[in-house]
Amino acid sequence: MNYQIKSTMFGEQIIRLNDNGSLSHIPKKQDNTDYQAYLKWLAEGNTPEPADE
Amino acid sequence: MALTQVDQGLLSSTAQYTGFKNRIINGAMVIDQRNAGASVTPTTDNTYTLDRWTAKLSQASKYSVQQSSTVPAGFKNSLLITSLSAYTVGSSESFFTKQVIEGLNVFDLGWGAAGASTVTLSFWVRSSLTGTFGGSLWNNAADRSYPYSYTISVANTWEQKSITIAGDTSGTWLTTNGGGINVGFAFGVGASLSTTAGAWASGFYPSSTGATSVVGTNGATFYITGVQLEKGSTATSFDYRSYGTELALCQRYFEKWEASEGSGEVAMLGQAISTTLVVAGPFFYKVTKRTTSPTITYSSNSHFNFTTATNSGNPTGTLDSSIANANSARLLGTAGSALLVAGNACCITANTASAYIEISGPEL
Q: Got the DSSP string for B109-153?
């Protein structure tokens, strides 16, 4: 599992690259548990992958 | 016949009542949208397993979780924990499963103030181990806990347990769409996270002192079902709800669109705005979500096609981004080949029965 930041016409997206090959688009909202997990992951010193494009 | 007299007992707060008696959702373990009955071995803390149930862990891969058909009479499914090693739990480590009841579903209990209502937790349990087991109720801030204990007397035999808990008159108990009451069942909690059963304590204690560690015995099993938390001091009969009702209750927190019938199923409609880009939506959810901004997960970028003007040679593409609210999402698709016509409508269809779209994030 990893994360990627991507810019789109809808703005900057946080994408979680799941182990099973699926992709999760996570909004930057504090009440979203996936965003909370992303912030925790960042706080642990991790860095998102660069965007593909 | 006119109704001339109503038994006052039926109107009292402790009388049996209909409606949302059981504050636990999926207490009978019948809904498993994420894994459809497959066994999972959680490697990260807060892994969601059966609907509304979360796997908590301090070390990866010490146990598996699976929806089981081993049940007591009157039930169809249970939640099975299987220990995958003989792990010695550290003092500050914990392994348990929990459900967080939304505050909006327990506001009437009045916890955190004088007059807090008594509740009763009941459940069926079975284990390959015997002895004293533990669990706990705690608040969202994890600074108020009520550890409880119960005994499993006979191995590999279903037993029903009931624990009555005087409502907490202290602490902060959310009555919003946040976490109201955490209900946990422990199968390995260290000494520093355990305390005396049967009393409210300040702090986070997911189990009671001396409880059996299931993860401490390789191959040990622990089943649970029929979990009910209800107002009052008596465990009443399990609150069976229709499958559709239970599924809808779960979908407030998580739902899954599946192309289960095969390829060609339309996931959503949109408009091509260039030869490669499609703005699609609204992708309506089946149930309004707990929060306004859910996560959208696509099974794979290769699982979806974009229809061309002639519906032939439809390219695959990526579903790159979304703007979602509590009811629907807008999606941006990017076709892998420049075969679309700007201004045309475009169907985004599954090209495999493995395609799915999950709406998550509102889970507690």
A: G-TTSTTPPPEEEEEEEEESS-EEEEEEEE-TTS-EEEEEEEEE-
A34·B46 Cβ contact <8 A? no
CB B210 within 8 A of CB B11: no
Instruction: Say yes or no for a CB contact (<8 Å) between A33 and B363.
Output: yes
User: Given the structure tokens 């990627």, which residue do they identify?
Assistant: A4
pTM, two decimals, is 0.91
Q: Do A27 and B295 touch (CB under 8 A)?
A: yes
How many CA atoms does the CB half-sphere of B50 hold within 13 Å?
Answer: 27
**Chain A contact set for B332 (CB, 8 A):** 8-10
Q: Does A27 touch chain B (CB under 8 A)?
A: yes
Please classify residue B11 by burial: count the beta carbons closer than 10 Å to its beta carbon, then call 0-12 exposed, 13-18 middle and 19+ buried. exposed
Instruction: Tell me the one-letter amino acid at B209.
Output: T
The yes/no answer to whether this complex scores an ipTM above 0.90 is yes
B274 part of contact set with chain A, CB < 8 Å: no
Cβ–Cβ below 8 Å for B291 and A29: yes
The token duo for B333 is: 């698709």
The confidence band for B21, taking pLDDT boundaries of 50, 70 and 90, is very high
pLDDT digits (tens, 9 = 90+) for B141-195: 999 999 999 999 999 999 999 999 999 999 999 999 999 999 999 999 999 999 9
Cross-chain Cβ contact A8/B364 below 8 Å: no
Measured between beta carbons, which residues in chain A are less than 8 angstroms from residue B177? 31
